[in-house]
């Protein structure tokens, strides 16, 4: 055991306790707090955030950290120390003046983005984006090392190991295979009826169904809660208090169902973290992409699977007997799998989703290669949407301004969404080889699936990287061909039947 | 402006932010968190509690505090410094070894009390109580000064200015006037029917009614929320986020109504704190007794007033038209004012409540005068219940073991409950002289009452003591004769009609 690590522990525990409080306050603010609480609550939260930062970012911790790096550590301690090292590296390499200036800029940029989106006028946001990119390029220069250069530095923050080299291959394959697939099945699309999803569905009944569904796919309601917010998300106080939100629309039945099952996937991951990792720096999912793989696994591979939908649709018909009396399982299955090339990422279906991400990846790559000027971004964006999805945004608001991410300097983040879907398909394929998964979904028996994900992914938290998890689990690294095959098989089957 | 106070401010702000987080976590735990969250959540909360304590209890703060005491301060600064001084005095005068030993003892004593109550066996709790009293006596010795001796030291923690001398007068008057009153009207009690309160009242409808009622009496729902817990209580994150709980029983309609209106009184006080005091050491109600006066004012003086009940009962009949079709306003008014000498404090009615407190006050006084041995307490308790209330507890659980307070060393706390009722009656009498309060209650016009309480009580937080508030408001100090008169007039009127 490392003596220095023992001395480090109180600092880590304090930071974890403060972060837990901040998560709780933040979730409370989104779901529960009265509307006029904002100003004082945020004032106090700012103090707690600073305390949490100061708890780790100080000379005593830095000294102990350096000592720990030269001492014998357990696997867990080592992971925690490396995580702390990563936080230090990122902050220490950037001059604090530039760092603080940039934080201020990002706050202003977010307001500018809001206004620009509201008025659908990119020119309001462009000067801020210009400056944000300039700062990000400066950050890259400070942070570059022998391994990581340019855009890879940013990508590494969200998904270590998934460099431009890996992502280029991934997106090239998507472009080659999925763009033609969409073209091929598009003309059969009108035959799938989704109108029954827009009938009147009582919100309270939807709420009960969502709770049933979350429990059905293995979200442990004795260690978690479900609330509501406009944009669904998952957060955790610790492994025994994992919280997610969903949203209910009276005339859009599938919205709550798939939000709930998506967030249940995230939440199960957090509930599965090992006891001795929770409330530490490595006590949550290992990366954005891996997290997204768990939510997409449940939302798409499982949640839009015909076998899975058998018992679920029965329960749904029990809940809404009148509204769904004339709807068959096949009708429902097709409706929730209908694809529609659109302009808005967050409304995209399973088939076209990753193409929305491809647009953003290609643009970010060009930005950090210095190949494009920010004033030309809307044109580039619209050209790519036309090329990949066959649609052109009607204005900036539904084009280049649709996502908040860039206003906060989150470059390199988007690819994780697409990687999540691809990793989910790879894991699903792997499980098909190990167990009779289709039968299990038919009977609603998730025990073996849960146990497998728990044993091979959830429990490790951040003590293994995505690539390590995949390697240890399947003896192979990330391979996007499974995703392509999954999409082709699935959509061919759905749309062949329409012929 | 005091320079030392400016230097003190970051410490105060940090402590306030941590306390806000702890209030939020605690309320969340009682009302929202999943049931298995306890262990990790409490582990993190213990760290935050220690941080909050350390934020103020350290040498830098002590030095600044001493400097502040010799500098020019604003009224607000002075109040904050005095509050901090009070916390220091209490802790510094007691040797930390004894203090910590006692905290440990209290934790054990609470478990022993739980077991003793469960088994209705005082002998399990007696040795712990013995030791707790011994420690409290030692604390008193350390804390005594020229002004405060003996039991007064403890009373002063909850209600400064209300010494044994003041309380003796108060309780003597109660004994002289209320004990005979109860005797006199008791035999007419059977004529009042309360059975309709036990019909079936849908919980969701009760919830809606409670929300309406809280809003009706002036609880601002844009700056507060209502949840549910077994024991109703009020807490605050700050003045714009005040939270209370109530509880609903399907077959006990009055329970939620009077819990809601009682807590609304507490909550309005917290919502009325001045902007510049919230999130400071003086940013909440000035004392237990003053707080209780505000809840009792709304629960009893207002909430059980026949004029007030006019529009409220109409709304209640709208909410439960079938259940209340045969009930008149007079029936309802009498039912919610029926008195019943009982054995349990928290179930007591307005008339007998303070007699329950009198038992506890008399016993505490004898304990700290060294006039009674802990082994004799159950006998003494039962004798007093027989003498004041005409009932004898059937066992220890519904006798001496009914309250948790003593197991946590909270001696001197109980009198505040009775003082609250008495102060409420005094304020009500005062308002009757200033404004046509009965007419206002008849029409549901609370504006002038709200404005008066806001201007004369709420806004000041802890910057004025109870006695100062009363003096500034009414040009007289605490006078329990108003309370006696209020009770006698009210109950004579109700029970005369029965003759």
Question: How would you sum up this structure, described in words?
Answer:
Two copies of one chain form a homodimer. Chain A is mainly alpha-helical and 499 residues long. Chain A has 20 helices and three strands. The first copy, chain A, has a three-stranded mixed β-sheet, sandwiched between helices. In chain A, a hairpin with a 2-residue loop joins β2 and β3 (241-246). The longest helix of chain A has 29 residues, at 3-31. Chain A is globular and about 70 Å long.
Provide the descriptors you would attach to this structure in a database record.
three-stranded mixed beta sheet; 2 domains; 499 residues; homodimer; mainly alpha; Neurolysin, domain 3; 20 helices
Short structural summary:
The first copy, chain A, has 499 residues and is mainly alpha-helical.
Order of helices and strands of chain A: HHHHHHHHHEEEHHHHHHHHHHH
CATH architecture of the largest domain in chain A: Orthogonal Bundle
Structural domain count of chain A:
2
CATH top level class name of the largest domain in chain A = Mainly Alpha
How would the blueprint of this fold be written?
The structure is a homodimer of 499-residue chains.
Chain A: H1 3-31, H2 38-56, H3 59-68, H4 75-93, H5 96-119, H6 122-143, H7 151-158, H8 164-186, H9 203-216, E1 224-228, E2 234-238, E3 241-246, H10 253-271, H11 288-302, H12 306-319, H13 329-335, H14 353-368, H15 377-389, H16 415-434, H17 437-443, H18 447-456, H19 466-474, H20 481-496
Parallel strand pairs in A: 1-3
Antiparallel strand pairs in A: 2-3
Helix pairs in contact in A: 1-2, 1-3, 5-6, 8-14, 8-20, 9-10, 9-12, 10-11, 11-16, 12-13, 12-17, 14-15, 14-16, 16-20
């Amino acid at each position: 055991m490392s003596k220095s690590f023992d001395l480090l522990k109180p600092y880590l525990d304090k930071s974890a306790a403060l972060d837990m409080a901040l998560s709780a306050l933040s979730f409370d603010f989104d779901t529960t707090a009265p509307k006029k609480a904002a100003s004082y609550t945020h004032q106090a939260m700012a103090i707690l955030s600073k305390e949490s930062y100061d708890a780790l970012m100080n000379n005593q911790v830095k000294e102990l950290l350096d000592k720990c790096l030269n001492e014998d550590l357990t696997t867990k301690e080592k992971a925690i120390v490396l995580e702390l090292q990563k936080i230090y590296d990122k902050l220490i390499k950037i001059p604090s003046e530039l760092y603080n200036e940039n934080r201020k800029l990002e706050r202003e940029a977010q307001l500018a983005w809001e206004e620009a989106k509201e008025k659908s006028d990119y020119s309001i946001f462009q000067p801020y984006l210009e400056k944000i990119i300039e700062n990000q390029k400066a950050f890259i220069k400070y942070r570059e090392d022998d391994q990581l250069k340019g855009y890879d530095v940013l990508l590494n923050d969200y998904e270590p190991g998934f460099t431009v080299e890996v992502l280029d291959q991934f997106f090239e394959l998507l472009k080659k295979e999925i763009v033609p697939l969409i073209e091929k099945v598009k003309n059969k699309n009108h035959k799938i009826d989704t109108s029954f999803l827009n009938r009147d569905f009582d919100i309270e009944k939807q709420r009960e169904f969502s709770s049933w569904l979350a429990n059905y796919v293995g979200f442990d309601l004795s260690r978690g809660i479900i609330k509501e917010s406009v944009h669904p998300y998952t957060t955790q106080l610790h492994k025994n208090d994992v919280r997610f939100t969903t949203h209910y629309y009276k005339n859009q039945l599938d919205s709550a169902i798939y939000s709930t099952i998506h967030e249940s996937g995230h939440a199960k991951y957090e509930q599965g973290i090992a006891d001795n990792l929770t409330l530490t720096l490595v006590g949550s999912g290992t990366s954005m992409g891996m997290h997204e793989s768990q939510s997409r696994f449940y939302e798409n591979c499982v949640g839009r699977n015909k076998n899975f939908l058998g018992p679920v649709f029965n329960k749904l018909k029990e809940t809404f007997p009148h509204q769904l009396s004339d709807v068959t399982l096949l009708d429902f299955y097709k409706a929730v799998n209908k694809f529609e090339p659109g302009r808005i990422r967050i409304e995209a279906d399973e088939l076209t989703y990753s193409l929305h991400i491809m647009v953003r990846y290609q643009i970010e790559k060009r930005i950090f290669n210095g190949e494009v000027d920010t004033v030309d971004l809307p044109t580039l964006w619209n050209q790519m949407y036309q090329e990949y999805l066959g649609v052109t945004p009607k204005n900036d608001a539904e084009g280049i301004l649709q996502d908040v991410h860039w206003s906060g300097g989150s470059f390199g983040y988007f690819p994780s969404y697409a990687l999540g879907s691809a990793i989910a398909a790879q894991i699903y394929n792997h499980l098909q080889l190990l167990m009779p998964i289709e039968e299990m979904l038919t009977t609603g028996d998730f025990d073996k699936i849960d146990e497998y994900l728990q044993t091979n992914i959830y429990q490790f938290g951040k003590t293994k990287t995505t690539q390590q998890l995949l390697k240890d689990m399947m003896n192979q690294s990330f391979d996007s061909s499974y995703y392509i095959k999954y999409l082709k098989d699935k959509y061919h089957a759905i749309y062949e039947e329409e012929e």
